[in-house]
Amino acid sequence: MLTRNVRSAVGKSLRLFGEPTTSSASVDVAKNLEQLKHGPHLDRITKSQARECLMAASNLENPSKEIYHKLERILKKQLERNELTSRTAALTALAAYKLGLYGHAERILKRATLCPSIMRRSLSVLILSGKGELDKALDQLEAVLCEDDALFNSWNSSISEEALDILCATIKERDDTQKQVKYLSKK
Protein backbone atom coordinates (compact mmCIF):
# COMPACT_ATOMS: atom_id res chain seq x y z
CA MET A 1 0.00 0.00 0.00
CA LEU A 2 2.74 2.44 0.94
CA THR A 3 4.62 1.60 -2.24
CA ARG A 4 1.50 2.65 -4.14
CA ASN A 5 1.59 5.92 -2.16
CA VAL A 6 5.20 6.42 -3.22
CA ARG A 7 4.25 5.80 -6.84
CA SER A 8 1.37 8.26 -6.46
CA ALA A 9 3.58 10.91 -4.88
CA VAL A 10 6.17 10.60 -7.63
CA GLY A 11 3.40 10.82 -10.23
CA LYS A 12 1.74 13.81 -8.58
CA SER A 13 4.95 15.67 -7.92
CA LEU A 14 6.27 15.30 -11.44
CA ARG A 15 5.14 15.14 -14.94
CA LEU A 16 7.24 12.63 -16.83
CA PHE A 17 10.13 15.05 -17.25
CA GLY A 18 10.34 16.49 -13.79
CA GLU A 19 8.25 19.60 -13.81
CA PRO A 20 5.89 20.07 -10.86
CA THR A 21 2.22 19.89 -11.75
CA THR A 22 0.91 21.63 -8.64
CA SER A 23 2.23 23.69 -5.77
CA SER A 24 1.25 20.86 -3.42
CA ALA A 25 3.67 18.49 -5.15
CA SER A 26 6.43 19.02 -2.59
CA VAL A 27 3.87 18.57 0.19
CA ASP A 28 2.93 15.14 -1.23
CA VAL A 29 6.59 14.07 -1.33
CA ALA A 30 7.20 15.35 2.22
CA LYS A 31 4.03 13.66 3.49
CA ASN A 32 5.03 10.33 1.97
CA LEU A 33 8.56 10.64 3.35
CA GLU A 34 7.02 11.16 6.80
CA GLN A 35 4.81 8.08 6.28
CA LEU A 36 7.91 6.10 5.37
CA LYS A 37 9.56 6.99 8.67
CA HIS A 38 6.64 5.79 10.77
CA GLY A 39 5.09 3.10 8.58
CA PRO A 40 5.53 -0.34 10.19
CA HIS A 41 4.27 -2.23 7.12
CA LEU A 42 7.45 -2.21 5.04
CA ASP A 43 10.82 -3.73 5.72
CA ARG A 44 13.89 -1.54 6.12
CA ILE A 45 15.20 -2.15 2.57
CA THR A 46 11.90 -1.26 0.89
CA LYS A 47 11.60 1.90 3.00
CA SER A 48 15.12 2.88 1.98
CA GLN A 49 14.38 2.27 -1.71
CA ALA A 50 11.15 4.26 -1.52
CA ARG A 51 12.95 7.12 0.25
CA GLU A 52 15.65 7.14 -2.45
CA CYS A 53 13.05 7.15 -5.23
CA LEU A 54 11.22 10.07 -3.63
CA MET A 55 14.49 11.93 -3.16
CA ALA A 56 15.32 11.45 -6.85
CA ALA A 57 11.86 12.71 -7.82
CA SER A 58 11.99 15.74 -5.58
CA ASN A 59 15.35 16.92 -6.96
CA LEU A 60 14.47 16.89 -10.65
CA GLU A 61 13.08 20.39 -11.03
CA ASN A 62 16.54 21.97 -11.09
CA PRO A 63 19.14 19.20 -10.91
CA SER A 64 22.75 20.11 -10.24
CA LYS A 65 25.84 18.03 -10.84
CA GLU A 66 26.11 17.54 -7.08
CA ILE A 67 22.58 16.11 -6.91
CA TYR A 68 23.27 13.95 -9.96
CA HIS A 69 26.43 12.50 -8.41
CA LYS A 70 24.54 11.81 -5.19
CA LEU A 71 21.84 9.95 -7.13
CA GLU A 72 24.53 8.04 -9.03
CA ARG A 73 26.09 6.92 -5.72
CA ILE A 74 22.66 5.77 -4.55
CA LEU A 75 22.26 3.70 -7.72
CA LYS A 76 25.65 2.08 -7.26
CA LYS A 77 24.71 0.80 -3.81
CA GLN A 78 21.31 -0.55 -4.94
CA LEU A 79 21.81 -4.23 -5.65
CA GLU A 80 18.21 -5.38 -5.83
CA ARG A 81 16.20 -4.89 -9.02
CA ASN A 82 12.55 -3.95 -8.55
CA GLU A 83 10.14 -1.24 -9.61
CA LEU A 84 11.38 1.29 -7.05
CA THR A 85 15.05 0.90 -7.99
CA SER A 86 14.10 1.04 -11.68
CA ARG A 87 12.16 4.26 -11.17
CA THR A 88 15.12 5.71 -9.27
CA ALA A 89 17.36 4.78 -12.21
CA ALA A 90 14.93 6.40 -14.68
CA LEU A 91 14.78 9.58 -12.60
CA THR A 92 18.58 9.65 -12.33
CA ALA A 93 18.83 9.22 -16.11
CA LEU A 94 16.44 12.15 -16.47
CA ALA A 95 18.66 14.28 -14.20
CA ALA A 96 21.68 13.35 -16.35
CA TYR A 97 19.70 14.25 -19.49
CA LYS A 98 18.75 17.64 -18.06
CA LEU A 99 22.42 18.30 -17.30
CA GLY A 100 23.40 17.39 -20.87
CA LEU A 101 25.22 14.20 -19.82
CA TYR A 102 23.66 12.08 -22.55
CA GLY A 103 26.16 9.20 -22.38
CA HIS A 104 25.64 8.87 -18.63
CA ALA A 105 21.87 9.08 -19.06
CA GLU A 106 21.90 6.31 -21.66
CA ARG A 107 24.06 4.07 -19.45
CA ILE A 108 21.85 4.62 -16.39
CA LEU A 109 18.64 4.10 -18.34
CA LYS A 110 19.69 0.50 -18.99
CA ARG A 111 19.05 -0.17 -15.29
CA ALA A 112 15.44 1.02 -15.52
CA THR A 113 14.07 -2.30 -16.74
CA LEU A 114 11.07 -2.59 -14.41
CA CYS A 115 9.57 0.89 -14.65
CA PRO A 116 6.65 1.64 -16.99
CA SER A 117 7.61 1.38 -20.63
CA ILE A 118 6.38 4.91 -21.39
CA MET A 119 9.13 6.23 -19.09
CA ARG A 120 11.85 4.06 -20.64
CA ARG A 121 10.86 4.73 -24.24
CA SER A 122 10.29 8.45 -23.76
CA LEU A 123 13.61 8.89 -21.97
CA SER A 124 15.35 6.88 -24.65
CA VAL A 125 13.88 9.09 -27.40
CA LEU A 126 14.87 12.21 -25.43
CA ILE A 127 18.43 11.03 -24.86
CA LEU A 128 18.93 9.94 -28.46
CA SER A 129 17.47 13.24 -29.71
CA GLY A 130 19.78 15.14 -27.38
CA LYS A 131 22.78 13.21 -28.70
CA GLY A 132 21.68 13.97 -32.27
CA GLU A 133 21.15 10.31 -33.13
CA LEU A 134 17.87 10.81 -34.93
CA ASP A 135 17.88 7.49 -36.77
CA LYS A 136 18.08 5.61 -33.48
CA ALA A 137 15.42 7.86 -31.94
CA LEU A 138 13.12 7.16 -34.88
CA ASP A 139 13.84 3.43 -34.52
CA GLN A 140 12.74 3.67 -30.88
CA LEU A 141 9.58 5.43 -31.98
CA GLU A 142 8.93 2.70 -34.54
CA ALA A 143 9.48 0.03 -31.88
CA VAL A 144 6.86 1.73 -29.71
CA LEU A 145 4.34 1.36 -32.50
CA CYS A 146 5.23 -2.23 -33.43
CA GLU A 147 5.67 -4.12 -30.16
CA ASP A 148 3.14 -5.49 -27.73
CA ASP A 149 4.38 -4.93 -24.20
CA ALA A 150 1.77 -4.69 -21.46
CA LEU A 151 4.16 -4.09 -18.55
CA PHE A 152 2.42 -2.30 -15.68
CA ASN A 153 -0.74 -1.73 -17.72
CA SER A 154 1.15 0.84 -19.77
CA TRP A 155 1.00 -0.21 -23.40
CA ASN A 156 4.09 0.83 -25.24
CA SER A 157 1.97 2.30 -27.99
CA SER A 158 2.05 5.47 -25.93
CA ILE A 159 4.98 7.83 -25.62
CA SER A 160 5.11 11.18 -23.92
CA GLU A 161 4.21 14.28 -25.89
CA GLU A 162 7.31 16.03 -24.55
CA ALA A 163 9.56 13.36 -26.08
CA LEU A 164 7.79 13.67 -29.42
CA ASP A 165 7.98 17.48 -29.31
CA ILE A 166 11.71 17.41 -28.62
CA LEU A 167 12.28 14.82 -31.36
CA CYS A 168 10.33 16.97 -33.86
CA ALA A 169 12.24 20.11 -32.83
CA THR A 170 15.55 18.28 -33.22
CA ILE A 171 14.56 17.05 -36.68
CA LYS A 172 13.54 20.58 -37.72
CA GLU A 173 16.90 21.97 -36.56
CA ARG A 174 18.85 19.57 -38.74
CA ASP A 175 19.81 20.43 -42.30
CA ASP A 176 19.14 16.95 -43.63
CA THR A 177 15.43 16.80 -42.82
CA GLN A 178 14.63 15.59 -46.33
CA LYS A 179 16.60 12.42 -45.61
CA GLN A 180 14.62 11.96 -42.42
CA VAL A 181 11.33 12.36 -44.29
CA LYS A 182 12.45 9.73 -46.82
CA TYR A 183 13.48 7.46 -43.94
CA LEU A 184 10.03 7.76 -42.38
CA SER A 185 8.22 7.22 -45.66
CA LYS A 186 10.14 3.97 -46.32
CA LYS A 187 9.09 2.51 -42.98
Short characterization:
This protein is an all-alpha fold.
Layout of strands and helices, then pairs:
Blueprint (H helix, E strand, L loop, with lengths): L1 H12 L11 H14 L5 H15 L6 H13 L5 H16 L3 H8 L7 H15 L2 H13 L14 H13 L3 H10 L1
Question: Which descriptors would you attach to this protein?
Answer:
2 domains; elongated; mainly alpha; 187 residues; single chain
Structure explained in plain terms:
With 187 residues, this protein is mainly alpha-helical. It has 2 domains: 1-115, no CATH class; 116-187, no CATH class. The chain is built from 10 helices and no strands. α1 runs parallel beside α3 (44-58), α2 packs antiparallel against α3 and α7 (117-131) packs parallel to α9 (161-173).
Mean pLDDT: 72
Number of domains: 2
N/C terminus separation: 44 Å
- Can you summarize the main beta sheet? none
| Backbone CA Rg | 17 Å
User: How many β strands by DSSP?
Assistant: 0
How many separate helices?
A: 10
- Helix content, binned percent: 55-70%
Task: State the secondary-structure class.
Answer: mainly alpha
| SSE arrangement, N to C | HHHHHHHHHH
Portion of residues in beta strands equals under 5%
